[in-house]
Amino acid sequence: MFERFRDNFLNLINSRLIVLTLVVILMGGVLIHRVFVLQIVEGENYLNEFSLKIKKERSISSSRGKIFDRNGKLLAYNDLAYSVTIEDVYESDKNKNKNLNATLLETIHIIEKNGDSVISDFNIYLDKNGEYAFNVTDTKLLRFLADIYGHASIDNLKEKEKNATPQDVINYMAETYGIGERTDPDDKSTFVPGQGYTKAEVLKLITIRYAMKANSYQKYIPTTIATDVSEKTVAAVKENNDALLGIDIAEDTIRRYINGTYFSHIIGYTGKISSDELKSLNEETSRGEDEPDRYEMNDTVGKSGIEKVMETYLQGEKGSETIYVDNLGKEIDSEGRVDPVAGNDVYLTLDADLQEAVYNILEQSIAGLLLDKIENIKEFKLGANQKASTIKIPIDDVYFALFNNNVISLEHMASAGAGDNEQAVRTAFLQKKEQVWSWLREELYNRRTPYNQLAEEYQSYESYIVTNLLINDTKVLSVDSKDETYKAWSEEETISLSDFLEYAISRNWVDVSRLDMDTQYADSSEVFDRLVDYISLELDKTAFHKKLYKYMIRDNSINGKQICMVLLEQELVSVSEEEKAALENGSTSSYTFMRKLIEHLQITPAQLALDPFSASCVIVDPNTGEVLALVSYPSYDNNKLANGIDADYYASLQNDLSLPLWDYATQMRSAPGSTYKMVVASAALMDGIIDTRSTVDCVGSFTRYSDIVMRCWNTYGHGNLNVSQAITHSCNYFFYEMGYRFGLSGDPESGTNFELANTRMREYADAYGLTDKSGVEIEESMPQFSMANPSASAIGQGEHNYTTVGLARYVATVANSGTCYNLSLLDKVTDRSGNLLEDFTPEVRNTIEMPTAYWDAIHSGMKGVVEGKKYFVDAGISAAGKTGTADENKLRPAHALFLGYAPYENPEIAIATRIGNGYASDYAAQISCKVLQYYFNPDKEEDILNGTASQLEAVVNTED
Prior knowledge:
The protein is of the alpha+beta class. The protein is about 45% helix and about 15% strand.
């Protein structure tokens, strides 16, 4: 038995199976030992290594510097706020877009449910018709498109990309970010951009995804979704934090502007840096190849005004820290923090109180002027021999302006929350729309009435269809302006709209590719039918709807009472219950009610955008060249454009007919009118054309030119005047003669030489700073000197075009007797501790060396202007000045100007005021008088700034 056991044991040992078993056991033991070492002994070390701990340098934003006025009054500062952010922690797999978009959409809904809004800092917005539209043009649009399509330069844009429509861009971005759905889940080619989302949701998602893409090279820095959110939003986001991957709440700073509307054109606003700004600012602030760039793609910078001009002073220096991130870009550790250094503070030369007062004076005065021109009539047509100064504003134009300038919301009238009067007006509108469309189809297919035989209303509709809709807006129609049939339509007006469209189709002027039809087999009648359908679709938009409201008001389909009640129902104005009841029961007419709204500035001139609705006023210290006030009316709230543009608000500004984004003080140009006469007086005296005792006999009509008769505003003539008297009485004849004499070369037979005359006058215009920009640091239009008929040029007409701020420099030079400054808005820069870093002093551009007697003559003439105005005398202000009117369009009132300074004996301030289409220069003088009263008599402040329309004195002479 023992032998058998031994034999079996030896056989087992010698078998291959046991050898294999022992090898497996040995290898298993080694493996178990190795796992033990990896998991237990070295587990923590290997876990750290597995986490891909990557070292990164992160910058820490600095606090932007503050902006103050000359007296230390705070104008711009930073405020702590909460922001909603997203960090890209999503796996880069096929479901990333789906998961990320779902999270973002849920977050957007939470934010908006709690009354906040997401960022809209994208160059596309939804217009009033619910269509995508660009909010930039020209080079800025091309730069935007280059960024969208991934090109470093706009020169690299393909033709198709360069001509991309807003919808094209949205479709491209939606496809890129997977914002849409497939009609066949298994087929990528069936993806429909935007499907399953509203247009607004698509735009918001694209805006956020685009911002995330700009930040994608540094995943560990979150992208802001919404700024300055409420505590309710903060709580809601935190409550849903587990379900919102990557979403967080961050403490942030936002830019605030105190009373921003008064200063927005000067201070400007901040926004996210663009690619062009990133490049230029880093080049400007480069500290060497080995040093990091000062600016990064996620930075906030000044986009306009002083915020932009003083960007490198205000920005401050970033801090930094070393962080460690994992393979998903998630921060896991940090060290080596270097705190940021706050930006420097900028002090302006402005007097904030004066700036605000002047703005309010302008608004009150323009409202008063409007009330003087509004009459209880339905229409006003300027007669062939009537002057524009006689134009009246029918109350029906006021009612229509509320629709035309988007004061009344057409969208709200169509909503479920519309009031009774809104519903009634909306019903009348729908009936009118159906009536007009029925007429149009009948006209296009059957009546075919020649244009000149149509009523004015229907002419208006047809003109809109061809010119606005088909040619300008949609580019469906491209015409040959020299074609005889086109002339028969546009000039002779002898053919019908049908005849014209059929002819346009036959000439291949119609871009049928825009009509969404198969052109291969389409004949002309099919194209015509499709064009009619296209017109029908395009007419169902806000711009055309407004035309319907115009004629609904005219034919009394809706009335003034209903419109006033709509204002109340939409809470656009507020009145007492007694005033509302009086309107409803008819004891107060809608005409009276509307006048009261304007009188109390519940409806402002800017909202109506009826002439006059704009003005500007610039006040300068003539002894230093510092700008004390630079006011443009109307204005906008720069708080809504900083910290990420409010797209809806920005779109409303762009569609506002009063052009609030336009700086009327530095960008609007017009002829200076008679305010230019001091330039010509200086030239005539210095060139020896006249002396202070020389006189010219004004007989009313100036007949020196063989082809034209020029007339003085005083058609009977002023008689003999010297230069001082000519300025006081604003005698055109005197200055016609000066302009003529400048061009005389010694040969009495040759007449005047235009070029010679204008060249001689230009020398003195230049001496007063009128041939280049004024020097203010913000954006300014270049002046234009007139090279037209020298006599017309000599009275400030011709081709002259100057800004208000340029005219302010000119009159300041007159006031100080010859020192022309480069004006400045900047006072000084200090660090946060108040230490002076830089002091800004306006430079002297040039000086005018002119005998004291000549200056006295000019000053005396200007003093005579003011002494002839009772309101200046009654105000007790010792001042000098000059009025001027500038005709631009014979169908609109002239621009009104006044330049002056005070006190006369020792000038402290110089002032330039312009009212766009302000009827008469005397109105500008009255406003300037109010400003001077405020400045020199602070005890009169309550009387001057009473918050209601200011009644201006009636003007007899409107042309000096």
